[in-house]
Amino acid sequence: MKYALVTGGSRGIGRAICVKLAEMGYYVLINYTSKQDEAENTLKLLREKGSDGEIIKFDVADQTQVEASLGVWLDKNPDKVIEVLVNNAGIRKDQLLMWMSNEEWNSVMGVNLGGFFNVTRLIIKGMLIKKYGRVINVVSLSGLKGLPGQTNYSAAKAGVIGATKALAQEVGRRGITANAVAPGFIKTDMTEGINEKDFKQLIPMARFGTSEEVAEAVGFLASEKASYITGQVLSVNGGLYS
Ligand code: NAP
Question: Ligand 1, from 29, 42, 91: best to mutate by most atoms within 8 Å of Cβ?
Answer without folding.
Answer: 91
